[in-house]
Design a protein that fits this description.
The complex is a heterodimer of chains A (116) and B (113).
Chain A: E1 4-7, E2 10-13, E3 19-25, E4 31-37, E5 43-50, E6 56-57, E7 68-72, E8 75-80, E9 89-99, E10 102-107, E11 111-115
Chain B: E1 4-5, E2 10-14, E3 19-25, E4 30-38, E5 45-51, E6 56-59, E7 62-67, E8 72-77, E9 86-94, E10 101-103, E11 107-112
Parallel strand pairs in B: 2-11
Antiparallel strand pairs in B: 1-3, 3-8, 4-5, 4-9, 6-7, 7-8, 9-10, 9-11
Classes of the chains: A mainly beta (116), B mainly beta (113).
């Protein structure tokens, strides 16, 4: 299993500012995933962070709002740009272990963001 | 359009009894299903999974049942313990190259001593 460290664990930010969330994995992984969980909602995939290429964004999410970096196989960052109260959410970093038919996703502890 | 549905937002069970958490899905292209548990201020942790070619998988106190014809799966926890109190998420994986996970809204389980 992978151990994922995510920081900050929480933050309160002013609207219009940006926050960068860091995700460190204890092993090399090909793909890292960024999720958002808004209050009362399910986990929603924002994007897949690929090492050596641009991130792949899901419908409804754009690079200008959520720029992602993936400088190496153990680290990624997600930036929430020009924040508004609607961005208040839990942001989660994840990696997947896909061995044959199996898939298992491992998560960081999440970043609880409140925008005021 | 919620492709993975957990229709019960919460469930309360007595310690020692069975907890049954339900999950329904609409997409027949899902080939793998997972259950996760989430405590407050922590990320989800993997519990148990099942391939679409099986109808049951058991791991200790946790058993997952899959009914493909009904597009329904359930997680059974027996006996339930107070430490099982958490939010449980059902997730389904799309078959093919884009093996994306689709998540349900979660069910909050409370196990009373």
């Amino acid at each position: 299993s992978a151990v994922i460290s995510q920081k900050p664990s929480r933050d309160i930010c002013q609207r219009g500012t940006s926050l960068t969330i860091q995700c460190q994995v204890d092993s090399q992984v090909t793909m890292m995933f960024w999720y958002r969980q808004q209050p009362g909602q399910s986990l929603t995939l924002i994007a897949t962070a690929n090492q050596g290429s641009e991130a792949t964004y899901e419908s409804g999410f754009v690079i200008d709002k959520f720029p992602i970096s993936r400088p190496n196989l153990t680290f990624s960052t997600l930036t929430v740009s020009n924040m508004s109260p609607e961005d208040s959410s839990i942001y989660l970093c994840s990696v997947e272990d896909q061995a044959g038919a199996r898939t298992e996703a491992f998560f960081g502890q999440g970043t609880r963001l409140t925008v005021v | 359009d919620q492709q993975v549905k957990q229709n019960s937002p919460s469930l309360s069970v007595q310690e020692g009894r069975i907890s049954i958490l339900n999950c329904d899905y609409t997409n027949s292209m899902f080939d793998y299903f997972l259950w996760y548990k989430k405590y407050p201020a922590e990320g989800p942790t993997f519990l148990i999974s099942i391939s679409s070619i099986k109808d049951k998988n058991e791991d200790g106190r946790f058993t997952v049942f899959l009914n493909k014809s009904a597009k329904h799966l359930s997680l059974h926890i027996v006996p339930s313990q107070p430490g099982d109190s958490a939010v449980y998420f059902c997730a389904a994986r799309l078959a093919g190259n884009n093996r994306k996970l689709i998540w349900g809204l979660g069910t909050s389980l409370g196990v009373n001593p």
